[in-house]
Amino acid sequence: KMCGVTQTNWESDEPIKKASQLNFHPHQRYNHYNYVELIIVADYKMVTRNNGNLDEIRTKIYEIVNNVNVICRYLYIRIALVAIEIWSNGDLINVESAANVTLDSFGTWREKDLLKRKSHDNAQLLTAIDFNGLTIGIAYVASMCDPKRSVGVVQDYSLSSFVLAVIMAHEMGHNLGMDHDTGSCSCGGYSCIMSPGMSHQPSKLFSDCSYIQYWVFIMKQKPQCILNEPLRTDIVSPPVCGNELLEMGEECDCGSPRNCRNPCCDATTCKLHPWVECESGECCGQCRFIKAGNVCRPQRSECDIAESCTGQSAQCPTDDFHKNGQPCLSNYGYCYNGNCPIMHHQCYALFGSGAIVAQDGCFKFNDRGDKFFYCRKENVIITPCAQEDVKCGRLFCHTKKSECDFDYSVDPDYGMVDHGTKCEEGKVCNSNRQCVDVTTAY
């Protein structure tokens, strides 16, 4: 049996680089888990095959997801089942024996219907139809997080939930940037997950090629949807202690007792040990509150105040700073929300170390009120600067290129003088880009 893979416009490196050629240490490939919030849809043929027993279908789906989680754990991916949809009254798309046509229809339906009803990262259609030829699954490659293409279709080809989990993991592997394994790929002597065909003894291991292709996809495509950990209240599958996914009724889940590395968690019960005061936080160390007085948020500028642990909480106290308007940087500026904004630093940020603040005459352009020089821009309405406010509009810097250099973008605030910046002695730019007395500005 085969997988009918559908390519996207994205291509991984060719030829596949060896691990030694990539810019990461083998033991530092993954510094956190990724989470795929999954919806599985069962078509009407699944309902008729199971004689209308929807509980039986749900149980089968739970078993599939549990096995997919076991397979994907080595990629540091957690699969969170956030919904099951069973088409018990008839299919909502035309499920055809042509697998590629069904995949396209399912992707379109997901984008136009399912995504609007329930937030999720990936959807898989579980169908009892017999696809043409030897195909038992199909998916788009490198499509995770795409509204239409983050989908796969899996044929209910076997009575074994593990076999179906291997097929689903294979199709999700495609979504995560993996191609079919070639003869040079290995996972320890077995047929690997991304093998183009299903063997009689399906493996639960991804090959070395798959690991590298997945990492290249993550680095190049940067799929944002899989970065957030799902809320335990969103997970619909029964909790499984030891799957490293925090679910309803669990206080923690650090994997099996053998693999658990969390000293706060009892891996046999997925509960915190009775003596635990905290599990995480800036003021939590070895499951206990850090002693009072230890700095948890250092001072970032002379306008900021360092915060220290209280000894009674795992969280660092609220970020506090000196009063707005207090002089800073030897009276070159005034404090504003914990920082000391001055034009010289802003010129450095825009143009580099050689840039300095331009002469006052350059700032007079801001009274024009055109698309570059203004004080305020709301939608299509442009407000020129009053004469006394010109140093609160567009920032001008003296650079090698020009004595009145400036920068801009589609963002109306980019290249403008920052709020709270000193515009005259005793005056600052307020949020309306007016140069006002510092004693009344805040």
Please write out the topology.
Elements: E1 2-6, E2 34-42, H1 44-49, H2 54-72, E3 77-86, H3 99-117, E4 122-127, E5 135-140, E6 151-155, H4 161-175, H5 208-221, E7 265-266, E8 271-272, E9 284-285, E10 288-289, E11 295-297, E12 307-308, E13 327-328, E14 333-334, H6 343-351, E15 356-357, E16 376-378, E17 381-383, E18 397-398, E19 422-424, E20 427-429, E21 435-437, H7 438-441
Parallel strand pairs: 1-5, 2-3, 2-4, 4-6
Antiparallel strand pairs: 5-6, 7-8, 9-10, 11-12, 13-14, 15-18, 16-17, 19-20, 20-21
Helix pairs in contact: 2-4
Give a quick summary of the entry.
With 442 residues, this protein is of the alpha+beta class. 19% of the residues lie in helices and 17% in strands. It has helices spanning 44-49, 54-72, 99-117, 161-175, 208-221, 343-351, 438-441, and strands spanning 2-6, 34-42, 77-86, 122-127, 135-140, 151-155, 265-266, 271-272, 284-285, 288-289, 295-297, 307-308, 327-328, 333-334, 356-357, 376-378, 381-383, 397-398, 422-424, 427-429, 435-437.
**Main sheet summary:** 6 strands, mixed
CATH H-level superfamily of the largest domain: Collagenase (Catalytic Domain)
Compute the CA-based radius of gyration: 29 Å
Output the CATH class name of the largest domain.
Alpha Beta
> CATH fold name of the largest domain, please?
Collagenase (Catalytic Domain)
Strand runs, count: 21
Give the overall pLDDT as a whole number: 91
N-to-C span: 71 Å
Indicate the structural class: alpha+beta
Strands ordered across the widest β-sheet: 1-5-6-4-2-3
- State the low-pLDDT regions, or none: 7-31
How many helices? The count is 7
Disulfide bonds: 145-225, 185-209, 187-192, 296-316
Keywords: Calcium, Disulfide bond, Glycoprotein, Hemostasis impairing toxin, Hydrolase, Metal-binding, Secreted, Toxin, Zinc
Domain Disintegrin: 238-324
GO molecular function: metal ion binding; metalloendopeptidase activity; toxin activity
